[in-house]
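ok trying again, last paste got cut off:
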Amino acid sequence: MVTRPRERAEELCFLLEDEGAEVLSVPLLELRPPEDPRPLASAAEHIQRYRWVVFASPSGVEALMEALREAGTVERLRRVKVAAVGPRTARTAEGFGLEVAAEPEEGTGEALFHLIKDSLQHGDEVLLPAAEEGRRELEEGLRELGVFVTRVTAYRSTPAPLPEDALTQLEATPPDVALFASPRTAEAFLEAVGRERLGAAKVVAIGPTTAAALERLGLPPAAVAERPTPEALVDAAVRAVRG
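nice, full thing came through this time. structure:
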């Protein structure tokens, strides 16, 4: 079983099926534009003022690039250093023609903070286009350095209506493995489905941040992906099954 936004699930499902798994994809979240688009639009209009733009997700990249296109300031972004959390985020940025100057090996905001902190000076400005409910560790670390952080909501996630047939299938055939690709999907699963429908499933997390959230929710992971990629998540699922 896979729990992640619809647009991210297809590749992971194919990889799992290639390993011989029967996959039930449960879309729990929908990504939507911010309720107030003005802060993102303002940041795009004045993009050249920032020393770094830090992307925490592919959706953050896509949202800012759309805002830059609307503002007519895409070319100004070339003057700004770009950092990305995770290989998928970095590849998305590169797909828009951006040069990623910093990408930590461990796909967490904390790891990115340690990677770029020595290149920042007191008073530098950093733009962080993020999910409305995104984590704050990177932002807080930068502020402690005396960096001016502009955090803008690039998108928000809302619970998706759960298909009735998915609930029926979960009740009839409890999963052997449950894969979670973000803390928010883990929370949404418990809210919409409940812990009991996991049965004795082994829980797998895409990275340490999601693993920590699962621990807090009372679902300690049997395995954690070494990198925040679909391929690494599948490898972790295989490890969990094999013990």
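cool. Residues 1-7 have pLDDT under 50 and may be disordered. The two ends are 18 Å apart (CA to CA).
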